[in-house]
């Protein structure tokens, strides 16, 4: 099982994501200018400020050569996990529904929050049960998830809402406390919390490791 | 026009650039002719207070700069200490006060950008940022504006570039109203054998400018802005403040680190204050060589820039390196990959002259040593003021108030309230080393495991200006001891210190006295602790029409600990844990304290003497206990005294405590002074500390109860401590 972590100029958490992946499988960095995913099984789009994010967050990264390959990978059912900026990029790329707006407080916010697993029925959450609480940090300026009412109903109906902020823990004003969603086929997931910063109790929590563990077991040869 | 008239014009120009008449005469003497416009511009910056340390250099020689862990001392872009396993930690603190007072967001952002470049200029990957901030009271709209802008600016740069901001401090005092302080510290990690110096070497080697294009921003920053006091015309100085671009710097950083990893560079230097002028002349001076720079090859943002403007521009996100001509192709390939502009703009020459060319024309030709070494140094003329020069702070609490009300007033005062509304704006965890985050412990703790190191490092930054205003010598001793105490709380032994001396106008006898006494105190305390200064920065002329700031020596200390997992936190951890006070036996006192400030009391002239050796012993006791793993909680008793420290332990742990203090007085409760720690843990561990530790109570419940003084629910304490949030509404 091999993870590929995309590195854009301006990525910040790519090495953290790489180290988190390495706890559960093999992992390597993928360069933004390459169209080749080097045969990895799962792609992680990490946090940071790709290309500086001086335009709209994620708006430029979606046009990078590597994203063509990531889209192909996703369309063929390959798993893709977007964390924070990665979530923003996947929304911009149309691989995930909705958009991420500036936080309700209009400030960057770094905080440990509790997140509830809504569905354990995805390759990203199969090591969790519905209702499990995970302690994972958030750190972002544009993390307020938004989708129109109708989309939200569809997301709900198709079990695409994967993570919600626990009561009182919504840090950014996300609609319906949504912290993470997936596509209809459940092979592309984006979330604002940083599971790669919750893989070791020494640095705060190991709850985020369960997402990487889920992916590793989902893809392990039977 | 006669020669005399030309000279008079040039002299007038020199004065406008901040040079004295005598300094100008000396430049004419060194050149054996009048300087032209380019040369005058370069000299005026190199001989500014900011670059030449002309009022502080003699004094700084008194600080200890040798130690067993030292790898690189003062003089390089950043100092460095060894942490074992072939790993080095490079670190430095620097000020960006005046730019921040003029434009807080960009001033603070570029302060962070500048200190990051200092650290990767020595070949170290930046792994942590800390900041030390001073503003006027938050009742003032200007102070709220400066605070908001500076915090946003620090976060913007640090968050965007992927370096965690792991700690810091902020105080609000009237004397900083016009002249705020923004000091930023950065730590970096490198393999010891990969540390690189800035000395240019190898005649015929190429000088390559990397990074952003050069524009007109920041022209005169070091002289006009950083080396003169602030006045009412400051808005007009906004164009002298640089604009930061963290994305450009992120690429530059990764690119430089890759070039270093491949051993492509012979030397590396960042472009900070005074831009190309200062970076090139310092590289040449250290390497004992000359440099030719062709300004016509410098990539420009505006194409009609004059040679002197190109030489003095402080445009951000630029680095200068020396490479062998054969390595140019490799450098260009790596820079291309990171989309970093790289242009050979000159070469290393014999003859120790800095020559500025504009194509074929020589537009400046100066001896390097005259630029770097020949600036006149000035003796200070210190004189102790006969009485306190700072006005008493405004009274906000009746001195007759009961202890119950006093503690809540202290907790809600802006100097003591929780810093959460600030530090939540900073990414404290990127790079996955952060084991103790802000408010979890007295010092930030960073694991070295992912770097192949053993154990962890801890870092703290401190400097209470009001205490130094009361007593420049003792106040500075306190700042150093406070930093060492913070490290001891997580079990760390200090390895080195960096300082930023923020003072007023050094020509004033009482400011000179503050500076001289402060450096003496720092030197004595460091000698007693056996900790060297690895480098730092001096920021003078921190004055406005209202007078000087509180003298503010900021010290940042880096230490090492064997096991990050054992590092105690500052919060009470478990019901039933026994609480004790470990003390060096110095009596705490109220004059000069936070409570005295709330009372509106005059600042005393003098603080009680400190038995530094006794405090050192106390710190060592606490350090070894903290390393042992038996203590869950260790917290230094600082501003607000014992009662505030107890409340902080309760708040950080989310649990109450019941204590009785042996001496039932306001001095014992709220008095300040170094050498006291609160510790908590299982009874055996606490009692194992011996006679130095006096058991005062137990952890438990949902209130802090101090026998004979009162009881405060956690909810009450939390409400009071949240006061700073209002500043960010």
How would you characterize the overall build of this protein?
The complex is a heterodimer of chains A (222) and B (729). By secondary structure, chain A is an alpha/beta fold. Chain A has a single domain (2-219), classed as Rossmann fold (3-Layer(aba) Sandwich). Chain A has five helices and eleven strands, in the order E-H-E-E-H-E-H-E-E-E-E-H-E-E-E-H. Chain A has helices at 14-22, 65-75, 85-92, 149-157, 209-219, and strands at residues 2-7, 26-31, 42-45, 80-83, 99-101, 109-117, 133-140, 144-146, 161-165, 178-182, 188-191. A nine-stranded mixed β-sheet of chain A has the order 2-1-3-4-11-10-9-6-7, sandwiched between helices. In chain A, strands 5-8 form a two-stranded antiparallel sheet. In chain A, helix 2 (65-75) links the parallel strand 3 (42-45) and strand 4 (80-83). Chain B is α+β, with helices and mostly antiparallel strands. In chain B, 35% of the residues lie in helices and 23% in strands. In chain B, the strands form five sheets. In chain B, strands 8-10-7-11-9-12-13 form a seven-stranded mixed β-sheet. In chain B, strands 23-25-22-26-24-27-28 form a seven-stranded mixed β-sheet. In chain B, helix 15 (403-412) crosses helix 25, helix 18 packs parallel to helix 19 and helix 18 (472-489) runs parallel beside helix 21. The longest helix of chain B is centred in the first third of the chain and has 21 residues, at 141-161. The chains are: A alpha/beta (222), B alpha+beta (729). Chains A and B meet through helix 1 and strand 6 of A and helix 8 and helix 10 of B.
């Amino acid at each position: 099982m091999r993870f590929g972590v995309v590195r854009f100029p301006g990525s910040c958490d790519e090495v953290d994501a790489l180290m988190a992946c390495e706890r559960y499988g093999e992992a390597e960095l993928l360069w933004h200018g390459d169209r080749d995913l080097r045969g990895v099984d799962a792609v992680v789009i990490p946090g940071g400020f790709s290309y500086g994010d001086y335009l709209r967050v994620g708006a430029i990264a979606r046009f990078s050569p590597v994203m063509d390959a990531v889209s192909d990978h996703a369309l063929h059912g390959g798993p893709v996990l977007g964390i924070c900026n990665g979530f923003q990029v996947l929304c911009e790329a149309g691989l995930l529904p909705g958009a991420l707006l500036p936080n309700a407080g209009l400030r960057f916010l770094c905080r440990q929050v509790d997140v509830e697993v809504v569905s354990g029925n995805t390759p990203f959450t199969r090591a969790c049960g519905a209702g499990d609480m995970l302690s994972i940090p958030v750190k972002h300026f544009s993390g307020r998830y938004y989708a129109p009412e109708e989309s939200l109903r569809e997301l709900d109906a198709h079990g695409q809402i994967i993570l919600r902020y626990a009561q009182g823990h919504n840090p950014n004003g996300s609609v319906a406390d949504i912290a993470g969603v997936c596509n209809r086929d459940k092979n592309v997931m984006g979330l604002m919390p940083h599971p790669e910063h919750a893989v070791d109790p020494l640095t705060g929590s190991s709850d985020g490791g369960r997402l990487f563990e889920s992916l590793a077991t989902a893809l392990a040869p039977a | 026009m006669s020669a005399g008239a030309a000279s008079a014009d040039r002299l007038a120009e020199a004065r406008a650039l901040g040079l004295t008449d005598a300094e100008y005469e000396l430049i004419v003497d060194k050149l054996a002719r009048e300087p032209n416009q380019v040369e005058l511009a370069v000299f005026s910056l190199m001989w500014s207070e900011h670059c030449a340390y002309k009022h502080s250099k003699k004094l700084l020689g008194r600080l200890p700069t040798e130690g067993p862990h030292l790898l690189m001392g003062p003089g390089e872009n950043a100092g460095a200490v060894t942490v074992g396993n072939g790993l080095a930690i490079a670190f430095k603190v620097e000020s960006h006060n005046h730019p921040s007072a003029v434009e807080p967001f960009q001033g603070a952002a570029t302060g962070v950008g500048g200190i990051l470049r200092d650290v990767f200029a020595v070949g170290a990957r930046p792994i942590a940022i800390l900041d030390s901030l001073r503003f006027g009271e938050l009742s003032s709209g200007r102070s709220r504006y400066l605070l908001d802008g500076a915090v946003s600016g620090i976060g913007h740069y640090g968050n965007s570039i992927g370096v965690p901001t792991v700690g810091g401090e902020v105080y609000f005092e009237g004397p900083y109203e016009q002249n705020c302080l923004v000091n930023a510290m950065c730590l970096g990690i490198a393999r010891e054998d990969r540390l690189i110096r800035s000395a240019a070497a190898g005649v015929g080697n190429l000088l390559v400018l990397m990074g952003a294009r050069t524009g007109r921003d920041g022209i005169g920053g070091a002289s006009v802005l950083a080396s003169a006091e602030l006045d009412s015309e400051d808005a007009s100085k906004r164009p002298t403040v640089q604009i930061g671009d963290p994305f450009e710097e992120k690429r530059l950083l990764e690119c430089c680190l890759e070039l270093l990893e491949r051993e492509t560079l012979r030397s590396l230097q960042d472009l900070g204050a005074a831009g190309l002028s200062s970076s090139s002349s310092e590289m040449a001076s250290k390497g004992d060589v000359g440099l030719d720079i062709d300004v016509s090859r410098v990539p420009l943002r505006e194409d009609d820039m004059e040679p002197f403007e190109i030489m003095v521009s402080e445009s951000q996100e630029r680095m200068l390196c020396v490479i062998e001509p054969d390595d140019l192709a490799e450098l260009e390939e790596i820079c291309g990959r990171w989309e970093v502009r790289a242009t050979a703009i000159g070469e290393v020459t014999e003859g120790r002259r800095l020559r500025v060319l504009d194509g074929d024309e020589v537009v400046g030709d100066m001896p390097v040593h005259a630029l770097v070494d020949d600036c006149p140094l000035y003796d200070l003329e210190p004189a102790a003021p006969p009485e306190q020069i700072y006005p008493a702070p405004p009274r906000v609490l009746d001195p007759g108030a009961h202890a119950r009300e006093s503690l809540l007033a202290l907790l809600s005062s802006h100097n003591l309230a929780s810093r959460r509304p600030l530090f939540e704006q900073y990414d404290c965890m990127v790079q996955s080393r952060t084991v103790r985050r802000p408010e979890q412990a007295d010092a930030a703790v960073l694991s070295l495991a992912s770097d192949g190191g053993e154990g962890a490092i801890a870092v703290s930054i401190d400097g209470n200006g009001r205490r130094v205003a009361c007593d420049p010598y003792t106040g500075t001793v306190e700042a150093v001891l406070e930093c060492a105490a913070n490290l001891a709380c997580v079990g760390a032994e200090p390895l080195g210190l960096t300082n930023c001396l923020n003072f007023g106008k050094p020509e004033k006898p009482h400011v000179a006295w503050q500076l001289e006494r402060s450096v003496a105190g720092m030197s004595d305390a460091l000698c007693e602790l056996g900790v060297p200064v690895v480098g730092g920065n001096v920021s003078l002329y921190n004055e406005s029409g209202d007078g000087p700031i509180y003298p503010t020596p900021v010290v940042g200390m880096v230490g090492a600990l064997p096991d990050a997992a054992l590092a105690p936190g500052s919060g009470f951890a478990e019901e039933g844990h026994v609480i004790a006070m470990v003390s060096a036996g110095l009596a705490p006192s109220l004059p000069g304290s936070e409570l005295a400030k709330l009372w509106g009391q005059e600042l005393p002239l003098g603080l009680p003497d400190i038995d530094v050796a006794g405090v050192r012993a106390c710190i060592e006791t606490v350090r070894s206990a903290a390393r042992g793993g038996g203590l869950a909680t260790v917290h230094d008793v600082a501003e607000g005294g014992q009662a505030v420290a107890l409340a902080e332990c309760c708040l950080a742990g989310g649990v109450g405590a019941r204590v009785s203090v042996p001496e039932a007085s306001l001095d014992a409760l709220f008095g300040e002074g170094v050498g006291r720690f609160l510790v908590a843990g299982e009874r055996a561990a606490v009692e194992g500390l011996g006679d130095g530790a006096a058991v005062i109570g137990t952890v438990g419940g949902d209130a802090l109860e101090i026998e004979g003084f009162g009881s405060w629910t956690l909810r009450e304490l939390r409400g009071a401590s949240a006061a700073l949030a209002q500043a960010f509404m």
